[in-house]
Design a protein that fits this description.
By secondary structure, the chain is α+β, with helices and mostly antiparallel strands. The protein contains eight helices and 42 strands. Strands 10, 15, 18, 19, 22, 23, 24 and 25 form an eight-stranded mixed beta sheet that branches. A seven-stranded antiparallel beta sheet has the order 9-11-14-13-12-16-17, with no helix packed on it. It starts with 12 loop residues before the first helix and ends with a helix.
Length: 637
């Protein structure tokens, strides 16, 4: 409810933190960082109740800004500050709690329109101020009142420019009047019927990603969506969709230009994400299972593949006869016409032991697409377009890290080579060397179980800039997390770790240089520190708390340890750990995790992030989580 302060949900946060501190001091075992003198006097005392700010009254609406377009349908949040903490506030006629520093957040209903005027009234002493927030809302389709049958011309999918193999089918989806009969008429005379899509409507991506209230998932089926199946044939944007209902008919041209690809003569391309030769890219082209989807493959520069389709700005690569990946068209560069699709025989492989890793060398007939698949104590190299002639698998000595190698021809043109390891995976990296594919398997570091941080290299990444979230009193996420990272650095160094930050000031740093920095310095662990915010339409009074994200399987234990430590130190709701497609958790050379300790958009959590005590708690949780992860890994045989 908007009437209730977030700090009041489940009790005042300061009281919960103080109670938690006493329980932890009594029950938890002593951590290594205590032995190293980091904690000194135990857990820091809970913050004292904030002093009420009594500055001049001023309504400062931070979000939404005048240029923002709110991507929500029924409700959304507004937040900002009043300059003083003793003010009385109403938003859209409903009383809203004001924090001691003047910060506030409200949850308001939205009209079915493209604009919403939300009145904000604040009063303190003899002063009253008013503001009307003019919210710009994402437009929604409204069926015409006067028509019995209609077609939503903004709902055509797919639309634009498409290349597709002859003989393959294309799923069509469109929104039209309920109960109508739909068919697509092509220039060749083909008639494509449509059937109703009877499944429930899908909730927004924000609710799927961040909503903890599952009632938001339960949607009623809609009667105005239809599906069709189009066998690939050349279209020139002249195909006509016809919807009939009774005696009424509506027609609209399907906005799709479709070219047909001959599967027997596919174009062959090479991948390169840095044709300008700036040297500022990661020399990887990401592959996705669906256009615009999450990252599944990471193809190094020079990888060759055959094209099996295209949709607007994305190209589909035929990795093998049964596997395909979508990549950005900007990274795809055609080879000379007549170039054969890549493929051929993969020969015998060899291991070579180095001081910090073991290298597997695989001879390839060309720079074939591949994928590294990680198990708990294994790495599998899946080579697309390869046929096995792996007669010899040479271990090159008796190095104990790789206990066994094996290979398997999974299909006619997919080969897997598996390395079974004596210890859990710590990290790996892969690259081309001429035609050979090299896979470096990193040796896990030696960890002293009594002093797990001693001698370890930890990279802390204060998230952003560029970008970053902003709190109700305009605290910037990059400023807050830099302060947290600096405090965590001190704690970890006191416990014996070597700690480096990816940035030490407000200068913007791109994502790839941060992960490159961690690998260049041989990081044992990488942790990116952030403060959270929600997408439009997700209720912040329910969906807030601590969360930690990882991407590679080996990093799940690190994420879990950090999450437990953050919840213990900060006392907020546990949203849990999750696998998330974030750049800072995708490196393969070391375990990596991204923390979202507090929600900077929430007044009480922003105030905690602004305070020395709150920053210290966040920092201590980061240090405790890293230490707990290393101590657990020290128990490995």
């Amino acid at each position: 409810m908007v009437r209730q302060s977030i700090a009041q949900i489940g009790g005042r946060k300061e009281d919960r933190l103080a109670s938690l501190a006493m329980r932890r001091a009594a029950l938890l075992p002593t951590l290594g960082i205590v032995a190293c003198g980091v904690r000194q006097a135990g857990i820091a005392p809970a913050p004292q109740p904030a002093t009420v700010v009594a500055a001049p009254l001023r309504i400062d609406l931070v979000y939404p800004a005048p240029t923002d377009v709110v991507q929500a349908t029924d409700s959304t949040f507004l937040f900002g500050s009043l300059g003083r903490g003793d003010a009385i506030l109403t938003v859209n006629g409903t009383s809203v709690a004001v924090e001691a520093d003047g910060a506030w957040i409200a949850w308001v209903p939205l009209p079915d329109d493209t604009v919403a005027d939300i009145p904000i009234v604040a009063a303190a002493a003899a002063d009253t101020q008013q503001l009307v927030a003019h919210l710009r809302l994402a437009p929604r389709f409204h069926p015409p009142d006067s028509a019995a049958v209609w077609i939503d011309t903004a709902s055509f999918a797919p639309a634009g420019t498409m290349l597709w193999p002859a003989g393959a089918g294309i799923r069509l989806r469109v929104r039209a009047a309920p109960g109508a009969s739909l068919r697509l008429l092509t220039s060749s005379g083909a008639v494509i019927p449509f059937v109703p899509d009877t499944l429930p409507d899908e909730p927004s991506w924000g609710i799927r990603a961040f909503g903890v209230d599952t009632t938001a998932y339960r949607r009623a089926p809609r009667a105005d969506w239809y599906l069709g199946w189009l066998p690939a044939e050349a279209l020139d944007r002249s195909a006509m969709l016809e919807a009939a209902l009774g005696a009424d008919t509506a027609r609209a041209t399907w906005p799709l230009a479709l070219s047909v690809l001959d599967p027997a003569r596919p174009p062959v391309v090479v991948l390169d994400d840095d044709t300008a030769r700036t040297g500022k890219t990661d020399s990887l082209t990401v592959g996705k299972a669906v256009p615009g989807g999450t990252y599944q493959w990471f193809f190094p520069t020079g990888t060759t593949a055959a094209v099996s389709g295209r949709l607007n700005g994305e190209v589909r690569l035929a990795l093998s006869r049964t596997s395909a990946a979508w990549v950005n068209a900007a990274d795809v560069h055609p080879l000379a016409p007549g170039t054969p699709p890549p493929g051929g025989v993969v020969g015998s492989v060899r291991l070579r032991a180095e001081s910090g890793w073991v290298t597997l060398r695989v001879p390839l007939p060309a720079r074939l697409p591949y994928r590294v698949e990680e198990g708990d104590r294994s790495l599998t190299l899946r080579i697309y377009g390869g046929a096995s002639d792996v007669n010899w698998m040479q271990y090159g000595g008796t190095d104990p890290l790789v206990t066994r190698m094996s290979y398997r021809q999974e299909s006619v043109d997919e080969l897997t080579i598996t390395l079974e390891l004596s210890r859990r995976v710590w990290g790996y990296r892969s690259r081309f060397d001429g035609r050979d594919l090299l896979l470096d398997v990193r040796r896990p570091p030696f960890i002293d179980p009594r002093h797990p941080l001693r001698g370890r290299t930890v990279i802390l990444d204060p998230g952003h800039p560029p970008l970053g979230a902003t709190g109700p009193t305009r605290l910037s996420e990059p400023v807050a997390v830099l302060a947290v990272a600096q405090k965590a650095k001190q704690l970890l160094e006191q416990a014996g770790a070597t700690v480096l930050l990816t940035r030490s000031d407000a200068t913007p740093v791109d994502l790839y240089p941060r992960t490159q920095f961690a690998e260049r310095h041989g990081a044992d662990v990488l942790v990116s520190i952030h403060a959270n915010a929600l997408p439009d339409g997700v209720n912040p009074f329910v969906n807030n708390g601590t969360s930690v994200y990882y991407f590679q399987p080996r990093s799940a234990d690190l994420a879990r340890a950090l999450d437990r430590a953050l919840v213990g130190q900060l006392g907020v709701q546990d949203l849990g750990m999750g696998r998330g497609d974030y750049a800072l958790v995708r490196p393969t050379w070391m375990p990596a995790a991204l923390t979202e300790g507090l929600f900077i958009m929430l007044p009480d959590q922003e105030r905690l992030l602004r305070s020395e005590a709150g920053q210290g708690r966040y920092a201590r949780a980061v240090a405790e989580g890293i230490e707990a992860f290393l101590r657990e890994r020290a128990r490995d045989p």
